[in-house]
Amino acid sequence: MAEETADFLSAERAARERQQFFLDTPQVIGFAGQVATPGSFMTVTVMNIPVVVTRDEKNVLRAMINACGHRGARVAFGEGVGRRFTCRSHGWTYNARGELLARPKADCFDAPDERLQLTQLPVSDRGGLLVVGLDPAMPQQRVDEHLAEIEDELVGCGLESMRTLETRRFEVRANWKLVAALSYESYHFATLHRDTVAQWFAPNAVHDFFGKHSRWAFALLGTEQLAQKDRAEWPDTVPGAVSHALFPGTILITTPTDAQILRGEPGPTPDTSVVQMIGGYRDEAQLEQSRAGWALGIKAFEGEDLPAAEESQRGLAGGRDRLLIGRNEPVVQFWHQQWRNALKD
Ligand code: FES
Ligand SMILES: [Fe+2]
Description:
Elements: E1 2-4, H1 6-9, H2 11-23, E2 27-31, E3 40-46, E4 49-55, E5 61-65, E6 79-81, E7 84-86, E8 93-95, E9 100-102, E10 120-121, E11 123-126, E12 129-132, H3 140-145, H4 151-155, E13 163-172, H5 176-181, H6 189-192, E14 201-210, E15 213-220, E16 240-246, E17 250-254, E18 258-266, E19 273-281, H7 287-317, E20 322-324, H8 330-344
Antiparallel strand pairs: 1-20, 2-12, 3-4, 3-6, 4-5, 5-10, 7-8, 8-9, 11-12, 13-19, 14-15, 15-16, 16-17, 17-18, 18-19
The chain binds FE2/S2 (inorganic) cluster and fe (ii) ion (FE2).
FE2/S2 (inorganic) cluster (FES) binds next to loops.
């Protein structure tokens, strides 16, 4: 399969993707476990829009634009537990429902409190993930149904109990589709990841498609030795990693103990993108192991994958007329078809 270079350079295509895939499509932004208990909250910036997700005392999940009714400053920072959010600029205070509770010198403002609430966004927690619509007018049903086709597969991953290990943000000089495709194939393990990922994982992968989402999995090295054994002796499960890709460009990697979200989005120009990573862990007793896994993942992604995407972007911009996707890269093929068909619709 071949992809035209223009798909990675064209401002017109980038503008349509930005609107259709990111602003008008629900986005997976985190683990439901990040706001598991009443009073908990998390913040994230999606497509430059600051978002706060809260779970109030009555256990109701909410997402809001994290922008103060006075002059728009952020009112919530980081994540944790908090019933009140006080803006650092002039001290306006909101509750977990986004209602304005107090403001210094309130008598100097005519607008009533009700008009100054934080702007609500549609949000849902499905399959252990937080899904949000960036447009306040997006119907709740669209957010609820965004993961419907793959939800059953996510349920077994225990994402609802994930807590945040670490977060990272990368600004990349490559189109967001080139960055996403890094997480869709194992063809590059033996070369690009010779000293990292290839030391742990076998390059063979299996894949499945679920409507507009995909999943592929690769096993820990050593699993291939099962080929010498009789099928009847094979275990029901083998240790490895499962990589889900959720429309339009969020990658969810799960292992038996941990999970990571890599949410890619277009940057300000077609040849730039932003990737936000959330590392999740489940078990306090395995924290050291989880940290080691995260560090290995970052080393491979930041040191090996991202430079490769930037190389590709430079080559395409430099005059390479198209890029090729082999029969051994079925998940990459699937996604380029998906993106193209979705734009046509
Ligand atoms: S901007 Fe928040 S109180 Fe002024
Ligand atoms: Fe990679």
